[in-house]
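From the methods appendix. Each design record in this collection lists the tokenized structure first, followed by the designed amino acid sequence. Records were kept in a plain field format so they could be parsed without special tools. The example shown here is representative of the layout used throughout.

RECORD:
FOLD TOKENS (129 positions):
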């Protein structure tokens, strides 16, 4: 797809490129959503870098309330105290069928290899080693 239409079109518009692409990529929607660098590059064409706040899921899982407060501050919204932020985050718990489940090592390897160039590009864009 990317050699024919370009990476950006394949990630963002695959359903509209034709039946062949739609059939192949229909089941890849979740996979393509993880190509964050493609989205961020697009946003940076219209917004200055300081207007974007990219939150790592690792930060959110490690300190949900603190991360929530950073997001609110960046958006210029009213700050929450730690208890309010924890309460807000507690309304959206991780589903029971997901908690504690581990990814198969083979699946992790495939995904790590697939996302490597996108993650490298995202790190370069965000100046985040």
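DESIGN:
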């Amino acid at each position: 797809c990317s050699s024919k239409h370009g990476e950006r079109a394949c990630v963002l518009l695959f359903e509209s490129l034709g039946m062949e692409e739609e059939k192949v990529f229909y089941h890849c929607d979740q996979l393509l959503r993880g190509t964050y660098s493609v989205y961020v590059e697009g946003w940076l064409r219209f917004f200055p870098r300081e207007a974007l706040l990219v939150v790592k899921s690792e930060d959110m899982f490690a300190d949900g309330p603190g991360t929530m407060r950073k997001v609110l501050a960046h958006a210029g919204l009213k700050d929450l105290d730690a208890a309010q932020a924890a309460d807000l985050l507690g309304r959206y718990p991780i589903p029971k069928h997901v908690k504690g489940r581990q990814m198969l090592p083979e699946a992790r390897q495939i995904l790590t290899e697939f996302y490597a160039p996108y993650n490298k590009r995202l790190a370069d864009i965000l100046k985040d080693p």
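APPENDIX NOTE: The longest helix spans residues 105-126.
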